[in-house]
Fold:
Amino acid sequence: MNFLDRNEFNFEPSEEVISTLKNFDIGKLCFYTRIYDQGKKSIFSEFLSELYGINEKQILLGYGAEDLLKKTIHYFLTDGGSKTMLIPKFSWWYYKSIASEVAGTSLQYPVYEDGNTYRYDFEGLKEMVYDIRPRILLVASPNNPTGNGLTAEEMEELVKMVPQETIVLVDEAYASFVSNDASYIKKLIETHDNIVICRTLSKFYGLPGLRMGFGFIGKGEQMERFAHYANMYLGYDRLSEDVAIAALKSDAHYRKIAEVMAEAREMYTKELSPLPGFKVYKSVANFILIKYPIELKERLQKAFAEQDYKVKFMNEPDIDTHMRITLGRREQNRLVCDTILRIAGE
Ligand SMILES: Cc1ncc(COP(=O)(O)O)c(C=O)c1O
Structure:
């Protein structure tokens, strides 16, 4: 089966990742980490601290970004303030589910279509934030499924316009596809206390099965309490820590793969945009969103199934004539594009 439906990784891990796994000292699993004696949570958070130039105390680790999102949302929606979270109208369905697990409310803010991209409307969002006074404002950059992201300047502008009582939770699961310059993170968390940024090894570094996520938080008492809640006293999975470090050290391998994805975006845009009823949205992540004539849905689904391919057919209101396709290997992308061309031409 070719899984192009959940934004996973259809390529090989880096040599460093493979050799780290092959040569892992199994004896490490017989003991808890000792790094805790130095007041640090993991060799991975220490590594991230050096890589990003950020105090280790402002780094969180989790079982995927999922875990960090869940911890952040559960903690802040139950700490006595408002129980409301704002989320983008089109976004990962799971945010809403996490809020509902603690009887929180999630309200959607609009995401606008603008030419071949989607955009957040900052003015409208600001009004909504001051009107509703949510405990959390969640922003995904790049956003799933729309594929649009915020620049470092836009992120700064957004955080500045939000009142202190609102936590800005930024889901950056796909951010490494945009750039390897993450220097804005240090600046943001140094200057704003009410911010949590989540990243993961699952997307750019192609290790969704590893379940390793990391995050960055602002300073101050409130965030210290949250870090205390979120951190694991006995440490983290010692195999995953090593593999995660190896992955981050082999950035060049993953940048090359991101180039294959850039080619695929260009191919889909060039070949499918001219088709009547189709629209290919600009994406800065490892997937692409394509609007198609709804009458083709069943035939497309059948054609993909016959070839053992899975792509995601969206069902949510106002985005239900769209498919989200993970960018895979060249031959997979070619087959998907050809299948769409064939069905559209019948
Ligand atoms: C926007 C977004 N955030 C987070 C995740 C989950 O990431 P992780 O595997 O690190 O839990 C996904 C997975 O598809 C996602 O689309």
Observations:
- The CA atoms of residues 52 and 183 lie 7 Å apart.
